[in-house]
Amino acid sequence: xxxxxxxxxxxxxxxxxxxxxxxxxxxxxxxxxxxxxxxxxxxxxxxxxxxxxxxxxxxxxxxxxxxxxxxxxxxxxxxxxxxxxxxxxxxxxxxxxxxxxxxxxxxxxxxxxxxxxxxxxxxxxxxxxxxxxxxxxxxxxxxxxxxxxxxxxxxxxxxxxxxxxxxxxxxxxxxxxxxxxxxxxxxxxxxxxxxxxxxxxxxxxxxxxxxxxxxxxxxxxxxxxxxxxxxxxxxxxxxxxxxxxxxxxxxxxxxxxxxxxxxxxxxxxxxxxxxxxxxxxxxxxxxxxxxxxxxxxxxxxxxxxxxxxxxxxxxxxxxxxxxxxxxxxxxxxxxxxxxxxxxxxxxxxxxxxxxxxxxxxxxxxxxxxxxxxxxxxxxxxxxxxxxxxxxxxxxxxxxxxxxxxxxxxxxxxxxxxxxxxxxxxxxxxxxxxxxxxxxxxxxxxxxxxxxxxxxxxxxxxxxxxxxxxxxxxxxxxxxxxxxxxxxxxxxxxxxxxxxxxxxxxxxxxxxxxxxxxxxxxxxxxxxxxxxxxxxxxxxxxxxxxxxxxxxxxxxxxxxxxxxxxxxxxxxxxxxxxxxxxxxxxxxxxxxxxxxxxxxxxxxxxxxxx
Length: 609
Ligand SMILES: Cc1cc2nc3c(=O)[nH]c(=O)nc-3n(C[C@H](O)[C@H](O)[C@H](O)COP(=O)(O)OP(=O)(O)OC[C@H]3O[C@@H](n4cnc5c(N)ncnc54)[C@H](O)[C@@H]3O)c2cc1C
Hints:
Elements: E1 3-4, E2 26-29, H1 33-44, E3 49-53, H2 63-66, E4 70-72, H3 77-81, H4 88-99, H5 131-146, H6 148-154, E5 183-185, H7 189-206, E6 210-214, E7 216-223, E8 230-238, E9 253-259, E10 264-267, H8 276-282, H9 285-288, E11 297-298, H10 307-314, E12 319-320, E13 325-333, E14 343-348, E15 353-356, H11 372-382, E16 386-392, H12 393-399, E17 400-402, H13 409-412, H14 416-423, H15 431-439, E18 443-446, H16 449-464, H17 473-487, H18 495-503, H19 507-512, E19 528-540, E20 543-544, E21 551-553, E22 560-566, H20 587-608
Helix pairs in contact: 1-7, 1-20, 4-5
Flavin-adenine dinucleotide is lined by residues 29-35, 52-55, 59, 62-64, 66-70, 217-218, 268-270, 299-300, 303-304, 307-308, 403-404, 539, 568-569, 586-590, 592.
């Protein structure tokens, strides 16, 4: 093992401190959830691991720490307790209806990879970009139905009793969306998901089986001269930075490092969502046009920079489905930001009225919480980067949930009392929601509609000047009154009212998540609230192409890259795109767990025979 480091790196620069001659270590790049799960699986089999991360130890767990901890499981104990009938068959149909895998073919266009149009052109490699993604999808849904729940619960995770219902669907049986609630929120949120994998890895560190190299940024993979096998990494040692978790850290380098002679190298470096330029570059204008949106808030920390995708690609790894991303349409500018451009996603329930930048109501079935990608497409088609939710105090108190562990102190601290107090008995909503209502730059709160529309126009003027549309009070009043009249009609023809009534058939939602249908303009439910919703970057659905063992495929798409593995978001959560075009939610943490586990098991299998 040839290593060259300065003293700051010496903590891990000791081949001797590993049980000499027993086993070469596996290098894992990335100490996020995917990397930790891989490390967990390897160390369970006594295989030594070196985990390299560009951030400091305080960021252990990466994005997962910030997450709400929602995990996609099928036919779980919690679902059954809530009377939800779920099955592998139903989940598979939902998944395939959402993923719409359409790059499976072998229609040679000579360009080297699929053309993003869904034509299935493969540049002569014989397999479309969805070849592995679809197989991962089949395997993942099976895992979610048969093993996920036991796998995580055995490690100490538990779920909230009321399973959440995300991505309620596009209004069709075969299309996008969850037919039933499947979003299992971890009791303890993201930090708890991290904890159950980090603790055993930290225990293994105490025993000398795991070494960490924090503040080491990988710039290059090292391949063996004779057979091209991945055997190490090269990069820069960054200066120490005591910045708190999530805060952007210094990129000043103080030295170089090189680490070779590894048994295998695992890329677990996350997606591109923290790098808005990379997001714009990958934007599929043909699908989500007519132009690339200009303004985003950022739903992930700056370290989610996507650099490693290019670095692996340069070494010959295949990247597929670059144009598939999962960005949200309900982003708030965080009034108390942690990372640059920090945005918070509203996890909406169905009652808010959704207007585009010109004040036109979004069409069926683009309602809050139904179909993220179709809504994104529609918004992009308006030529503006924002929309409006119009609601009132009753709806905000019951229906606004914010994504992120720090925005859910009751869940994160596992306080059942706080949970009940703020989510069931409060007429104001959770404290973080109240804070946004008070301090958030995107909120307008007024007692009557005319003043509300004036406030919305003022907000637009203050940020966009004369370039952006002015909202017309009379037109918005007509939209609201027509909607409100339908609430009083038992046989409402308004699809959103039907959705609300249907959602309330799920009893936890009728008690804690969806306000009883009422007129938005009813002053008894006031004040009125308008919230400007920004586009928010989050997840990368494409990435490094991997087979079912998380082994990276070479650029020819047919042969595996010896010694090189990828898992988590950088691998499109498996295969280079387990989600196809759309997600059912809770599938990202789940995808990190499943693909990280696959990497660990496969490498252990390769090493131990
Ligand atoms: C606020 C928020 C809420 C979320 N909620 C949910 C949810 O409820 N359910 C769900 O399923 N998903 C959720 N997600 C998504 C999920 O958390 C992420 O997709 C997942 O955690 C990604 O994990 P990862 O290990 O693949 O990557 P990351 O967590 O991004 O970790 C990658 C690590 O690699 C390091 N790294 C990158 N490049 C290099 C390099 N060149 N050299 C060295 N180190 C490098 C980074 O510093 C980082 O530590 C949420 C995400 C956020 C931000």
